[in-house]
Amino acid sequence: MMALCIARTHRNLGYALISIFAIFSQAWAQAPVGLTVSSHDVTVLVNKTESFDVLVRDPFTQDFRITLIKQHDNMVDLDPMEFSIMAGSTQNQTILINGLKPGHLEVTAESQPNEKWVVEDIYLRITVANSEAIIYTSLIFGWIYFVAWSVSFYPQIWTNFKRKSVVGLNFDFVFLNIVGFTLYSIFNCGLYWVPGIQDEYFERYPRGLNPVMLNDVVFSLHAMFATCITIYQCFAYERAEQRVSKIASGLVGLFAAFVIISAGLAAGNVIHWLDFLYYCSYVKLTITIIKYVPQALMNYRRKSTVGWSIGNILLDFTGGTLSMLQMILNAYNYDDWVSIFGDPTKFGLGLFSVLFDIFFMLQHYVFYSISHSSVAVNCRCSNFDIVFRKGVCKCDLDRNAPNESVNVDMPDRESRRIYKGFYYYKLFK
């Protein structure tokens, strides 16, 4: 008898679950579907015309009057500004956009009768540009500086490998770099791959675009990887008495404490994870400002740039200059100077980096170049001719006496090799 009651109970519970599922399925199937647009982003040139379509995804049961609303009145003309969607109609509505003045604006809509679900997906981000040629030039600049910045890590790696030494490369710079690029990678990966953080972003900025693109993720992860190679070289190759300074260690300790506390607050739901990522980006920006100082001071104290690759600086200068030029071109093309002068952080950081690059180039080519260097380079080859040119001490050796004493006073580890009867000492730049 007990078994029979249990069986009936299970059967009734099954019927109840099926009924609930059927009710929710029917409600979901009958949920109204509003209008949408063919594209949420449109670019139009001044005095040119583009178009988009308002799409009817499901026929309405009543007539609706739709009115488009422009964020700024003087940038574009929309034709028509008002239109009707009749009950039962599946006819889409084409809207023409005529560019009047460069800039950015949003277009939304409202309906009569006032039903929010009808027009909630009608929104456009319209960009009005002065010149199509500038758009493509800006795109080309973007790809060039992406490549330049990506490749800029390898001249230093090659210099270290060639010299089998990292003497002259400041360890504080490397230490700060790996911390900065790790935090930058956390920011990019979080916003690009974590759905929960993306939901937080779009809840805060409902009609915004995700600021992180795939190339940002690739660049930051690649930068972290390349810096790890340099760190390995710092352990594997000759480094003399160089080590990370107490000041750099203290700064990184403060940054680490700030990041750990922020992560704890995010885990405890005191702040959002999106805010945690922003805090990581602020630390990265701070590191970008200060990371060049230790290397510049080291070059000054040594009166030499030997061991510090100028190729890294030239590529970084190329990338930074093109990045700023791209911002200036975009500001002109879209009449968006406020993006530079109203929020100068990005442009200011780019300018700061370029100024440091110029300073490094002056150190390398003018202040401490080998041809003008005050560093004593003394080549002594007994009974043989001596040539010192472009950092090379060349002594004409007796092939029968390859062990002839040759002394070269260099500020750093030198490369020695015998080639075609000559004993070379090369001070690598």
Explain the overall architecture.
By secondary structure, the chain is α+β, with helices and mostly antiparallel strands. It folds into 3 domains: 36-129, Immunoglobulins (Immunoglobulin-like), CATH 2.60.40; 132-367, no CATH class; 379-426, no CATH class. Helices cover 51% and strands 18% of the residues. It is built from 13 helices and 15 strands. It has helices spanning 2-29, 116-119, 132-151, 154-163, 171-193, 195-204, 214-236, 246-267, 273-290, 293-302, 310-333, 338-342, 345-367; strands spanning 36-37, 41-45, 49-55, 64-70, 76-79, 82-85, 93-99, 103-112, 124-129, 379-381, 386-389, 392-396, 406-408, 415-419, 422-426. The strands form 4 sheets. It has a 5-stranded mixed sheet with strand order 2-9-8-4-6. Strand 11 and strand 12 form a beta hairpin. Helix 5 (171-193) runs antiparallel to helix 9. Mean pLDDT is 82; it is low at 2-7, 23-29 and 372-429.
